[in-house]
Amino acid sequence: MIEKVLKGSPAFYIWLLFLGGIASLGVFAYIFQLKYGLTITGMSRDVSWGLYISQFTYFVGVAASAVMLVLPAYFHHYKKFKKMIILGEFMAISAVLMCMLFIVTDMGQPQRMLNVILHPTPNSIMFYDMMVLMGYLFINALVGWVTLEAERHDVDPPKRIKFFIYLSVVWAFSIHTVTAFLYAGLPGRHYWLTAIMAARFLSSAFASGPAILLLLVIALRRLTGFDPGREAIQTLTKIITYAMAINVFFFLLEVFTAFYSGMPGHQHPLTFLFVGHDGHASWVVGWMWTAAVLAILSLCLLIPPQIRDNERVLPWALGILVIASWIDKGLGLLIGGFTPNPFETVTEYAPTFPEILVTVGVYAIGLMVLSVLWKIALDVKKEAGTF
Amino acid sequence: MSTTRRQFLKIAGLSVFGLGASTALDAADAVAKDMPGAKYEVGGKHLAAKRWAMVIDTRKLESREDYARIIDACHKVHNVPSIPTKQEIKWIWTDKYDRVFTDDMSQHLSPAVREKDYLLLCNHCENPPCVRVCPTKATFKRADGIVVMDYHRCIGCRFCMAGCPYGARSFNFGDPRPYLKEVNPAFPTRMRGVVEKCTFCSERLEVGLLPACVEASNGAILFGDLDDPNSPVRKALAENFSIRRKPSIGTQPGVYYIV
Ligand code: SF4
Ligand code: SF4
Ligand code: SF4
Questions:
Q1: What is the pLDDT, as a whole number, of residue B103?
Q2: Residue B29: inside a domain, yes or no?
Q3: ipTM for the complex?
Q4: What's the gap in Å between the CA of A337 and the closest CA on chain B?
Q5: Which of A19, A342, B113, B240 can pair with B258 through a Cys bridge, CB separation 3.0 to 4.6 Å?
């Protein structure tokens, strides 16, 4: 099936070339980082993780979200999703690859990466995170390929693959739960030390991941005419709406616990993010309020069925939702966890230009992988008449 | 007849091979014995304890010079660079009361106590989160309670920095060597991309010396075995009121403060 990549329209190759250009800027910035070290980033002794790890976290969520198509289709035999499933699985593959790249770019000594395997440490959550991510990549690649191959030959997928499909559902929950545990088990990091961290991660992932997928699919429909079906879009939008509502609800639970209990440690990160700490208002304050307003706005656009089912409004609602969830999880979560620092003071963090360049480079690589995989999937579908 | 013969040959062959192998092993052993450091032996002078701990008598530390002397002593022997940015590296440093004892917020603390500087360093926790989270065992706890690091195994993931509730760890964001004024050749300098922190002077204990900061403190910092009721630390703790940093999070710090 790989040969499908070789036969594309000029537009497709220009697109790949464009992404390749951006990716090479990222690679260039990364070489710079390899030469001078992570000192070129905005991270510091007090805020020792930054954009790379937060993007890793966000995209684990995107990867896990494929389950929102697989679960209804295979557990509830919801046939309408079948057409789109492969796109979700392939998006999961590129998201996991991006996660891995973000981890590597964040390492101080990337050439020693194998130490995680050479000296397996079962008490470290990072050890499990690496294992479940690799497993998820493998499962999705296997399931995606086998089902697509079956579609191409117009036969039912082999029965044995069912096992891996069910496994992928459980596994999707596991990757994001384990990623939440990276944060949720650290004493002294008040913003992260919460039992609903994994639940928050999952809800925000199941809102933002399918929203990104749907946005891409809508773009795909414009570009190629591939139509996943009106009902499939509407059902997925409902799922997104529920997940986002739960996500906002969970966040409000955190706010309640922090402020009703009156415990300073729990309040400080939230006050830092939304008004500033100790008279010190950071640049994130504006971003966090934007996220809050956009989150509510997205719900206002998604909850009433008349607006939700309006295909003109839908892309806007989804876009707003993605921005809100990205600020919350791809920015606020990390900065709030590190500020105030262990001395209850504020050390500012803002990503630097090279850091942003590396991040955008990883995005571009992810998008390249996704474009190639989706092209294969769509070409196979065209041939098989399931387009 | 032929079977027995074949068996004989087999046995003979095996024994020749075995003999050869054992001679080779002997030879290798002999070579290894002559290699420096091939045999691990605890030096005769080394200091041992069941649980090393430190008591800082803050009443005995007054002037800026007191602190500077102690901090310099540590940073000089351990080749700790002075980097003037937020990406700094420090093993031992000072801060004010409410920054050090963040969950002890007595509103009307005596101004003398509140305004004073306090030394901070790695607590060598009994239950260290940094060890728990490290994915490579590059940070580990020794049997005597000291939490140490292997700079050659560390992958620079900085999970331990997120895990440490005391901000005791520093990361080499860039190459630290240009920031060293002079290098102590007896202690390794570090490379870019690894984490480091106070080692409780494990390398000095090995040769019978107390930690450098303890030596430089003129008796204000005590060091000893927490499991031995006659050790200087236990005696000081029995006679004085002492506190530790963030006691509620269950890490059981090994550094005590007499205030
Ligand atoms: S103070 Fe921090 S670095 Fe030192 S042992 Fe405790 S958790 Fe680890
Ligand atoms: S930075 Fe090094 S010591 Fe710290 S957790 Fe990672 S591998 Fe372990
Ligand atoms: S015990 Fe040793 S390494 Fe730790 S602060 Fe004192 S002198 Fe430095």
A1: 83
A2: no
A3: 0.92
A4: 9
A5: B240
In this structure, are residues B120 and B100 in contact, taking their beta carbons and an 8 Å threshold? Answer: yes
**Owning domain of residue B66:** 52-258
Query: How many structural domains are present in chain B?
Result: 1
Cβ distance A240 to A321 under 8 Å? yes
**pLDDT given for residue B177 in this prediction:** 96
Q: Which of B130, B189, B177 is nearest to B157 (CA)?
A: B130
Q: For the whole model, what pTM was predicted? A: 0.91
The domain spans of chain A are 2-382
Does B41 fall in a domain? no
The tens digit of pLDDT for each residue in A98-123 reads 999 999 999 999 999 999 999 999 99
Instruction: Please tell me the distance from the alpha carbon of residue A261 to that of residue A255, in angstroms, as a whole number.
Output: 10
* B4 is a domain residue: no
The answer to the question of residue B31 being in a domain is no
Summary count for chain A: helices (H), strands (E): 15, 0
DSSP label at B1? -
Q: Are A124 and B133 in contact (CB under 8 A)?
A: yes
B126 close contact with A: CB closer than 8 A:
no
Report how far residue A176's alpha carbon sits from residue A333's, in angstroms, rounded to the nearest whole number. Answer: 15
DSSP bridge pairs for A277: A280
* pLDDT value for B48: 92
Mean pLDDT over residues A249-259, rounded?
A: 97
Ligand 2: residue whose CA is nearest its atom 2? B154
CA dist B73 and B48 (Å) reads: 22
- Residue A363 has a CB neighbour count (10 Å cut-off) of 19
Q: In which element (H, E) is residue B204 found?
A: helix B202-205
E strand or H helix that includes residue B225: strand B221-225
CATH number for B222: 3.30.70.20
Query: Which strand (E) or helix (H) includes residue B94?
Result: strand B92-96
Q: Is the Cβ of B250 closer than 8 Å to some Cβ of chain A? A: yes
Kindly state which CATH superfamily the domain A2-382 is placed in. Answer: Formate dehydrogenase/DMSO reductase domain (1.20.1630.10)
Contact (CB<8Å) B162/A49: yes
Helices and strands per DSSP (H, E), number in chain B: 9, 10
**What's the pLDDT at B41?**
57
Q: Which helix (H) or strand (E) holds B149?
A: strand B147-149
